[in-house]
Amino acid sequence: MKDILTAPFMVEMIRTLTNMYDHGWDERNGGNVSLMLDEAEVGEYLDVGGAPLRDIPTGFAAPGLEGRYFLVTGTGKYFKNVRYAPEVNLGLVRIGAGGTRAQLLWGFSDGGSFTSEFPAHMMSHVARLSIDPANRVIMHCHPANLLAMTYVHTLDEREFTRTLWQMCTECIVVFPDGVNVLPWMLCGTNEIGEATAEKMKTARLVVWSQHGIYGAGKDLDETFGLIETAEKAAEIYMKIAHLPRLNTITDGQLRQLEARFGVTAREGYLD
Ligand code: 13P
Ligand code: ZN
C-alpha cells in the first residue's frame, strides 16, 4: 500500500483547504469540504476490504450514495491546521447501507467525526450527481463579501444573480446557472441539508443568508474558482453599492458574452 498522505487527492485537498483559509473564507472551524473518490483510487492507499476503524451514524438516509467514498473535513476542525495534522482534521469514509451510517477507513484520529454539515454535503452530492455525473466536490465556506451582501441586497435569486453578473465580465461565463439563495436557517440540520440539495438541482452555487455559501463542481480547483469568482463579484458590489452607479454591464452585453463563450444564462434571468 502506498502512503495516503502522498495521494494526489490528499495533496490537492490539503492545498485547497489551506488556500481557502488564506483567503479568509474559513475562520476558526468555519467551512467544510467533501470530495468523492473512486474505490480504485482509494484502494491504492487503503485496504478497502478490511474492517473499518469505526462506524458513525449519519442521522439521515442517502440511498443514492451507498458504497461511495468521501474525503471530508472534521467537525470543529480548523482549516489552518489541516496541513500540519491531516489525519486528525480529515477523515475518509465509505457510506453504508441506506446512507444512514458511514464507515471510517482513515483519519479523525483523535476520535473526531465528519462535519456537522454532513447532511447538506451528502444530500447535495446526490442532487448534483443527478444533474451532472461528473460532480465530485461540495464546498462550504464563509466569504465576507457574499455574506455581507445578504444583509443589504434583496435575496430574490434572479436579482441576486443579476447583480453578481453585472459586477465582473466573466461571472456569467463562470456561473451561467446563477446563484440560488436560502433564507437564514439553522445550520447543521437535515432541514438545511434538504433545502440546500433542492437548490443545488438548479445552480452550483447556493448562498446561505447571513452564513456563507455552498459550491459544487467536478474537482477542487473548479469549485474553489467558482466560489472565488462569486466572492470577487460580491466584493465589487460591496465597494460600490453605496455610490451612484454611472455604468454597468447591460443585458445586451451579457447576451454577447453568452454567444462568445457558448454558455446559456439561466432561463428568464436576462431581460
Ligand atoms: P463544522 O466544524 O461542523 O464543519 O462546522 C463549520 C461550519 O461552517 C458550520 O456551518
Ligand atoms: Zn458554515
Record keyword descriptors for this entry:
271 residues, alpha+beta, 9-stranded mixed sheet, 39% helix, binds 1,3-dihydroxyacetonephosphate, binds zinc ion
Query: Residue ranges: pLDDT <50 for 5 or more in a row?
Result: none
Note the gap between the termini. Answer: 57 Å
- Ligands in the structure? 1,3-dihydroxyacetonephosphate, zinc ion
Reported for the largest beta sheet, the result is: 9 strands, mixed
Describe this structure in words.
There is one protein chain. 39% of the residues lie in helices and 17% in strands. By secondary structure, it is α+β, with helices and mostly antiparallel strands. Strands 2-5-4-3-1-6-9-8-7 form a 9-stranded mixed beta sheet, sandwiched between helices. Helix 6 crosses helix 9. The chain binds 1,3-dihydroxyacetonephosphate and zinc ion (ZN).
Concise account of the structure shown:
The chain is α+β, with helices and mostly antiparallel strands and 271 residues long.
How are the SSEs placed, and which strands pair?
Blueprint: H1 8-22, E1 32-37, H2 39-43, E2 54-57, E3 69-73, H3 86-89, E4 90-95, E5 101-107, H4 118-131, E6 137-141, H5 144-152, H6 157-167, H7 171-174, E7 179-182, H8 190-200, E8 205-208, E9 212-217, H9 220-240, H10 251-261
The structure holds 1,3-dihydroxyacetonephosphate and zinc ion.
Residues 29-32, 73, 75-76, 115-117, 140, 187 line the site of 1,3-dihydroxyacetonephosphate.
